[in-house]
Structure formats: structure tokens, C-alpha cells
Specification:
Layout: H1 2-10, H2 13-31, H3 34-43, H4 48-53, H5 57-60, H6 70-88, H7 90-117, H8 134-143, H9 153-170, H10 175-189
Helix pairs in contact: 2-6, 6-7, 6-8, 7-8, 7-10, 8-10, 9-10
């Protein structure tokens, strides 16, 4: 049993090394004074201002989480990321989550820019915090659908679409809800990468 757990972890090195990094950064941020923590998160945010000033935030934002327990990430990474990495291999899994994270970020922030330009969102939304792993998570969950045999694939997809669709229906002005739907679509569009 212990050797099976070790094999599961060993065969998804990207997933579990990323989780260790999240654990480290989460603990570090929690120990900082509130103002310094806020500044660190702001510096690693993928909002319009930071994307223009420091495009590397597309990578660094993946190492910070927004208030959710690390145990939650351990569970969801083990359910979505690890099986996707086992199936696709580390490099193809990284390709999918990279495309989902970067693509969804750029599309959702592009929407923010358009809405600010049209006067439907305030200019202050250029600096709204946007960091975390949820777009990559949506992409990994979506591509994993191709691993699930029929007829179970259909209810899996219905649940995924309902989950992320509900977030968008609840608040259509929320760029993260738009980003999640974009990441889901990008993950589904990665069928070509499947073995």
C-alpha cells in the first residue's frame, strides 16, 4: 500500500513538486505582515498593469493561492493533475496546463481591457488581483475527460461545464469566471495532445 502511494507520487513529479512549492509559498505569505503579503501578491498578479510591466507574472502567479487550504489543493491535484500527468506524461501535461493558464489569463484580461475601454468597468480594474492555479486546474480537469471511457465521459463533462458555467452565470462581469470557461475550453481543445 505504501509502495503504491509512493509510485503514484513518483509518476507525477510535476504535480507534487508544484504542490510542495505551493505549500512553501503559502506558509511564507501567511508569516508575512499583512502589508508585505499584499504587496507580494500584487507583484505576482496577472492583472493588466502587471502583465504590461512584468510579463513573467504569467509564471510566478502559479505559485500563489487565494485563501483556500493547501489540503484542498492536495486533494484536487491528486484527483485532476496527477491522473492527467500520469496519462499524458510530464511534458504534455505541462503543455496543457501552460496553455490553459496563459491562454485563459490573456483572454480574460483582454476582456477586462475591452470592458474598461468601453466604460463598462472602472479603470481601477487594471490592478485587480489575479493570481493562482485555478485556470491550470480547469485545463487539467478538461483534458482528463478524454481519458474517461464512455459512457462516463458525458456526465463528467456535464458536471465540469455546469460547475464552471454556474460561476459565469452567477456573475457575468467576473473576469475569473470568464477565465475559467476559457481554460475549460482550452483544455478540451487539447485533445490533439492525448496519447
Amino acid at each position: 500500500m505504501l509502495s503504491d502511494a509512493w509510485d503514484y507520487l513518483r509518476d507525477a513529479p510535476g504535480t507534487y513538486l508544484w504542490l510542495l512549492a505551493l505549500l512553501g509559498t503559502s506558509r511564507y505569505v501567511r508569516r508575512l505582515p499583512a502589508q508585505r503579503a499584499a504587496k507580494l501578491l500584487e507583484t505576482n498578479s496577472t492583472n493588466l498593469t502587471q502583465l504590461r510591466r512584468a510579463p513573467y507574472v504569467l509564471v510566478t502567479s502559479l505559485f500563489f493561492t487565494a485563501g483556500t487550504s493547501w489540503w484542498f489543493y492536495l486533494a484536487t491535484y491528486s484527483v485532476f493533475h496527477a491522473p492527467a500527468e500520469h496519462w499524458l506524461g510530464t511534458w504534455r501535461w505541462l503543455t496543457v496546463i501552460g496553455l490553459a493558464h496563459v491562454g485563459a489569463t490573456l483572454l480574460s484580461q483582454g476582456w477586462v481591457a475591452r470592458e474598461i475601454g468601453a466604460g463598462r468597468l472602472p479603470a481601477s480594474d487594471r490592478t485587480t488581483s489575479d493570481y493562482g492555479v485555478s485556470y491550470a486546474q480547469a485545463g487539467a480537469a478538461a483534458v482528463l475527460a478524454y481519458r474517461i471511457p464512455m459512457p462516463w465521459r458525458v456526465p463528467y463533462l456535464v458536471v465540469l461545464i455546469a460547475f464552471y458555467g454556474y460561476g459565469w452565470l452567477k456573475n457575468r462581469r467576473d473576469f475569473t469566471a470568464i477565465g475559467h470557461l476559457c481554460a475549460l475550453a482550452i483544455g478540451l481543445a487539447c485533445f490533439w495532445i492525448a496519447p
